[in-house]
Amino acid sequence: MSQESKVPIRLGFIGLSTTGWASIALAPPLFEDPISSRYSLVAVSTSKPETAEASAAKYSELASKARGTSITVKPYHGSAKHIVSDKEVDMIAVSVKVLDHKGAAIQAIEAGKDLFIEWPVGRGLEETKELYEAAKNKGIKTLVGFQTRFTAYALKAKQIIDNGDLGKILSSTFIISTNGFWGPFTSSIHKYILSSSNGATLLDIPGGHALDLFTHILGPISSLSATIKNQVPYSTLLDSNGKPTGETVPNDGPNQICISGTLANGALFTVHLQSSMTEADFNWIIHGDKGVLRIVDDSDRTTKQGFFDASPDVYLNGEKVGIDVDVVTKRTGLNWEAFAVGDTSKFADLEHALKMKEVLQAIRKSSEDGRRIDLL
């Protein structure tokens, strides 16, 4: 049941620069209807004073245009303590490298601010658990960047299944391949993703996003068995022009993840996630006792990374189903909107993030021990 919160929510944004993921995907919806009436960006924080000033200038202009009045976005830099201490900020958004998630988010929580944080919500299960417990104890509301559940194909698939068009779900197979990241070549700025201790492996980031999408539509996993393997133990670093630097570093995260098991509704499932493939792939089949749903990306697979830029078509019993044009800012906008109006059935919070980290932990444990893990 939806219950609209007070608006606008005064937002302070840690990690919002003039370029990068947050500027491309997360911020634009804040300056467009209907999100612009629900949020007011009042402050930004970056690592350096010059980037903070540039960011504040850019978003002051955008905010002023969106609201039809002069708005000044305040610049902060360095420690998160500055922006979280601002009494004119109701909510803090954190979109920085996973290495810095906990440090920024815990300060926002301790300051009593509501929190948006990008997945993977800290390095490993323990950091996510610490953030969840801190937020619960403080009584703040949280929003996690699981935006893939708001893609056009995901919304259509959930509608079809919730309407009962497939009947009882019997099984599901999900195959995802990427031809970028976590492979034999890695950009120098992404060197940190190659160490599993940093919580940014193929399983941690795409795996978490994919399994959130999977379970949001089909329901929770009851039990699973998994095999994960690293077939690319070293990666050559690339410079900003995409040319090899000559430096090769260890890669100890998996590039093959095979999972099978049972969902809470009794359906059987398999998920196969793999990186460093020559062709990307996105192929999701859901069988019910009344029909079959296929969500397949048949576009040029050599130019795609796979999961994050998939643009699949949806087929119900062999017939193509029309879906809306999908753009990343629409996904992120729907996530912001769901939180603002309090529609908890749609968005993920830190409790969802913790449950997903427990699933990822079970996948690792199953592979290490060679046994099935029961989750429910």
Secondary structure topology:
Blueprint (H helix, E strand, L loop, with lengths): L8 E6 L6 H6 L12 E8 L2 H19 L6 E4 L3 H4 L6 E4 L6 H10 L3 E4 L6 H15 L3 E3 L7 H11 L6 E9 L7 E3 L15 H16 L2 E9 L4 E5 L5 E7 L5 E8 L4 E7 L6 E8 L3 E5 L16 E4 L2 E3 L6 H13 L9 H20 L3 E2 L2
Parallel strand pairs: 1-2, 1-4, 2-3, 4-5, 5-6, 7-13, 8-10
Antiparallel strand pairs: 7-14, 9-12, 9-18, 10-11, 12-13, 14-15, 15-16, 16-17
How would you describe this protein?
The protein has helices at 21-26, 49-67, 81-84, 101-110, 124-138, 152-162, 203-218, 328-340, 350-369, and strands at 9-14, 39-46, 74-77, 91-94, 114-117, 142-144, 169-177, 185-187, 221-229, 234-238, 244-250, 256-263, 268-274, 281-288, 292-296, 313-316, 319-321, 373-374. It is an alpha/beta fold. Strand 16 and strand 17 form a beta hairpin. The longest helix has 20 residues, at 350-369. The chain starts with 8 loop residues before the first strand and ends with a strand. The mean pLDDT is 95. It comes from Lentinula guzmanii. Pfam families: Gal80p_C-like, GFO_IDH_MocA.
